[in-house]
Amino acid sequence: FSNMPQALKDAFLRVNPDERQLRTMHDKDAARRRGFRDVPDEAVRSVRARTLVVLGDRDIVKLEHAVELTRLLPGARLLVLPAGHGDYRSCGPVH
């Protein structure tokens, strides 16, 4: 939790000021990352649903990875938004 970037903590707390929920979100995300299993390219290529890959231009995920995923998915499209991970203010109002 101490290694979590302060900007991400601040962004979460602007949306939900409950610090216990921030910790819960962090812990669940850390557990998900520890248990992550890569999906083989063949499994990705087998997807037949129309797919839109969305990425922020200042996101944690590299653009090259989003392009690679888009190329693996038959007929997929890529949308790069002017935002980064946790950059909620650039997304407009939430209703």
Topology at a glance:
Blueprint: H1 6-15, H2 19-34, H3 41-45, E1 52-58, H4 63-72, E2 77-84
Parallel strand pairs: 1-2
Structure description:
This protein has 95 residues and is α+β, with helices and mostly antiparallel strands. It has helices spanning 6-15, 19-34, 41-45, 63-72, and strands at 52-58, 77-84. Strand 1, helix 4 (63-72) and strand 2 (77-84) form a beta-alpha-beta unit. The model has no long low-confidence stretch (mean pLDDT 88).
Beta strand count: 2
Number of helices: 4
Strand order of the largest sheet: 1-2
Q: How much of the sequence is in beta strands?
A: 15-25%
* Oligomer class: single chain
The biggest sheet, with number of strands, parallel, antiparallel or mixed sense and barrel status, is: 2 strands, parallel
Measure the end-to-end span: 30 Å
Specify the overall morphology: globular
Mean pLDDT: 88
Please tell me how large the radius of gyration is: 16 Å
Instruction: Tell me the series of helices and strands, N- to C-terminal.
Output: HHHEHE
Brief rundown of the structure:
With 95 residues, the chain is of the alpha+beta class. Helix content is 43%, strand content 16%. It has 4 helices and 2 strands.
Characteristics of this structure?
alpha+beta; 95 residues; two-stranded parallel ribbon; 16% strand
